[in-house]
Specification:
The structure is a single chain. The chain has about 100 residues and is mainly beta. The protein has one domain: RlpA-like domain (Barwin-like endoglucanases, Beta Barrel), CATH 2.40.40. The chain is built from 2 helices and 5 strands; from the N terminus they run E-H-E-E-E-H-E. Strands 4-1-3-2-5 form a 5-stranded mixed sheet. The chain is globular.
């Protein structure tokens, strides 16, 4: 899964291709009593920087990543995040 980050994390592009584990902590009181789901964590690869006026938070997750750890009806959640070991890329070959 992929994500974009705010300028503070982007660090002039240094964050590009890094992986982060993002964990849902709680909702933003938008009417969903317990928005976090299951393990409430997802690992994402940073591929872009959010435009300064368009980033909705520190890490902007794609809907698929957000929905895997929180109720999408909440729209925004409180998170914590940490660098995660980069995933080793692999290619599938047909033999």
């Amino acid at each position: 899964m992929i994500a974009a980050v705010s300028g503070a994390i982007w660090n002039s592009g240094a964050a590009c291709e890094r992986c982060y584990q993002v964990t849902c902590l709680s909702g933003m009181n938008l009417g969903i009593p317990k928005p976090c789901r299951g393990s409430a964590s997802v690992v994402v690869k940073i591929v872009d920087r959010c435009p300064a006026n368009a980033c909705r938070g520190t890490i902007d997750l794609l809907q698929e990543a957000f929905a895997s750890m929180a109720d999408p009806n909440e729209r925004a959640i409180n998170i914590c995040y940490q660098k995660y070991k980069n995933l080793v890329p692999f290619n599938l070959r047909k033999y």
